[in-house]
Amino acid sequence: MRKTKVNKDQLINNAVELLMERQQGISVTPEAVIMRVPTKHGDIRNVSLTDDWLCRYMENLFLTEYKAHLSPGDSKLALRQIQAKAEFNNKVTRSYARTYFNDRVCYLNMGNQEGDIITISAEGVSGSSLADTEIQFRTDVGEIAGFVLSGNPFDLFKLIRIPSDLQLITMVTMIASMIESIEKPILSFIGEAGAAKTTAARIIKSILDPSDIKDAIKAKTSTMPKTMDNFALIISQQYVTIMDNVTYITKDISDMICQQSTGGNYEKRKLYTDTGTVSLSLGGLLIITSTEDIIQRDDAVDRAIKVRFEPVGNDERIGTSELVEKLEKSKMHILGGMLNTLSKALMLYPSIKDEKLPLPRLADFGRYGYAIAEALGDGLGNQFLNDYHRLREVQKLENLNNDGFFTTVSVLLTKNPHYWKGFIGQCAKALSELNKDEELGFPKSSFPAPNKFSKKLEATKHKLNHYGIKYNTYKKDGMAVLELLKIPADYLIAGRIIEKQEILPRTKKDDLFDIERVPILTDTESIKEYNEYFIRDVIADIYDDPYNSPTKDRILQAAINED
Q1: How many beta carbons lie within 10 A of that of residue 12, not counting itself?
Q2: Residue 232 has pLDDT above 90, yes or no
Q3: FRET pair for 63, CA 20 to 30 Å: which of 48, 177, 203, 214?
Q4: Helix (H, G, I), strand (E, B) or coil at 247
Q5: Rg, the chain, Cα only
Q6: What is this structure's pTM?
Q7: What share of the chain is helix, strand, coil (3-state, %, to 5)?
Q8: pLDDT tens digits, one per residue of 122-143
Q9: pLDDT over 70 at 104, yes or no
Q10: Beta strands, E only, 110-214
């Protein structure tokens, strides 16, 4: 019997040494690290280092050898050490996607029997084999037949009916999807039945991630699952995933879509275990097709690119066999053009990495997207960012139009120019009456009862703020009083009140990113002076007499202090 070590690090090291003495060999596969261990029956068992059975095996060994208990947590730490060392010694990097991106080099798995890998870097596009690389890709993917580097990627839009003003954004999204380490938007294809949404999605998949189905027009699609477990499983098994004919997205699935866009892992308890977990990698490009706009939650809207398909006229339709023939002739040229564009973008990226750009929420996508657009054509980088920002604002406005509470509050402040004051119960009643009188058509559930009104205001606060609607609540004689203020659009920039350094000198330009700026105020006295200036000068042309209204003065001051 060996003497037990007390130090935890030493205890784990002892467990590692003990298991390594017993093991009969370790092999590294694309799916797992496998250890061969002898059982008490005298046979040899092949077991993954993530298997709970091996944890218990190690704990029993430790108990027998040291007469002490090894906790499940410590046994897992010990197995992770063994796994990390095995992978390091075998120089293995696993990629569960079609591509792997590291140090501005993209590796594309061709999925053929020869194990060809395409390397895309700033130096160009070249080929190698699995035997020449340290990356282990999935083997259950369809084959990419080949590519022609001289091809034009925009030939894709001769096959699919993407509106012309969204073709640049769509192409940038497709090429950026090869950079698997960055966040990427969701493509939402919307249109009536027969608008060729699913066909467009399948053509994109057949170019970027062909499945084992030979007919590209019948490429694999999935139905939107009802559970997060099934959603994560489907996403983790494909590089380009098509969720076809979706009619409704639950709150949980909407959150999962956001996580898939950003990238990450989804973990759940392993079946038939108490402490075992399964980790599924979320990433790749997600395309959702639907007849209605079903992406409604704010976080998902902010990550989506919504493409609306016009109906296909009878004289515009072509047969499946004709479309397949056109696709087979052009898809190698389209893919080759995309790979060539990515190579040029990786060459341009270092020069723009530190350039100050008006980046969107998906900042890495915005910066790489700018480089990709510039590689597609000089000056297209700025066009891409402007188009993307404009699209996001349009989508937010469309989403707000579906928000009965926000829309009715906006109408209320139109009927009562810029300012409304009253008890919360009066506001709730006024909104309901407006919905009826103006025939807005929103359901009653859009308007909360007075006792839930403040909570609804707080939940909608970011939307109200973005479009210049400020509110203030206070108690008067035990009653809750609400004040609403609408700041005119002339005094707003991207959803916030224009600051003094942006309106002095008073030369506002149309382009959001070209507004002249002067040094930012930092000392307390200057800020205080500015607050008074804003209320009594800038807001003076909204109200006839802002000096004699303490409630207006307070809400204006609160709005400025908040921003």
Answers
A1: 21
A2: no
A3: 48
A4: coil
A5: 30
A6: 0.71
A7: 50, 20, 35
A8: 999 988 765 566 666 766 677 8
A9: yes
A10: 116-121, 124-129, 135-137, 186-190
